[in-house]
Amino acid sequence: MTTGESRPTFLLVHGAYHTSTTWRHLQRELSAAGWKSEVIDMPSAGKHHGPDAGLYDDAEALAERLGRMEGPVVVVGHSHAGLTITELGGGHPNLVHLVYLAAFMPTEGESAGSLSGIPIPEVQSGPAPAMPDPRAALYGDLSDDEASDEITRLVDQSLLSCCQPTTRASWRTVPSTYVLCEQDQAMSPAAQESFALRATRIERIKSGHSPQLSAPDQLAALLARIATIAMAERG
């Protein structure tokens, strides 16, 4: 059993169009179970960082934050953040595990655009096109009121972050778990199955694209199990 002293801290990385507030329910569940977590806001999401921050800016911000954290860390990337945690690369002594949550899991040279089959535009400045139906795609298993609240929290996403290709693949050197969301309407379970083949192990959860909102208790328990196994294997 992982003790409180040896338990890693979860660093939760949000996906496109979101901010760190997407993790608030999950953080509550993790804390209630005795697990520490931290969140980070990505430069490519929202206007306060500038409209042209890209994937490399996100990865640099994540690396800087990781470097300031003490003790072992499990980094969890949701959706688009799979690109970010992949671009993070190795060389972080306190990084013990990567968790891809309904996330892109690219190889070197792939981008969100290329993985989605979207042509890369010549001009890559400004915001990416808005998601046409976030209610159905992202929050299909939330109540109408809950989904409406989450939609008001969405922000602009930079187009550049969707176009820049990854230059590294951290999952080649860092153990990883892919958490496949079986009722996902934003990223098909079939696509997730394909990505998951690159992970060290695969877990599944019966939820839509955002289990941190629709099933935070189940996701917290799953993350705790993943972290416990990761620490046991690390020795």
Explain what the structure shows.
- It is globular, with a radius of gyration of 16 Å.
- Helix 8 (189-196) links the parallel strand 5 and strand 6.
- It is of the alpha/beta class.
- The protein has a 6-stranded parallel beta sheet, with helices on both faces.
- The chain has helices at residues 24-32, 55-68, 81-87, 112-116, 134-138, 144-153, 160-163, 189-196, 211-214, 216-234, and strands at 9-13, 37-40, 73-78, 95-101, 176-181, 201-205.
- Helix 1 crosses helix 10 and helix 2 packs across helix 3.
- The chain has a single domain (9-234), classed as Alpha/Beta hydrolase fold, catalytic domain (Rossmann fold, 3-Layer(aba) Sandwich).
Strand and helix map with partners:
Blueprint: E1 9-13, H1 24-32, E2 37-40, H2 55-68, E3 73-78, H3 81-87, E4 95-101, H4 112-116, H5 134-138, H6 144-153, H7 160-163, E5 176-181, H8 189-196, E6 201-205, H9 211-214, H10 216-234
Parallel strand pairs: 1-2, 1-3, 3-4, 4-5, 5-6
Helix pairs in contact: 1-10, 2-3
Assigned CATH superfamily: Alpha/Beta hydrolase fold, catalytic domain
Question: How much helix, percentage-wise, in residues?
Answer: 25-40%
CATH architecture term? 3-Layer(aba) Sandwich
Compute the number of helices.
10
Give the CA-based shape.
Answer: globular
Number of β-strand runs: 6
Mean pLDDT: 94
Short summary of the structure?
This protein is of the alpha/beta class and 235 residues long. The chain contains 10 helices and 6 strands; from the N terminus they run E-H-E-H-E-H-E-H-H-H-H-E-H-E-H-H.
Describe this protein with a few key phrases.
single chain; alpha/beta; Rossmann fold; six-stranded parallel β-sheet; globular
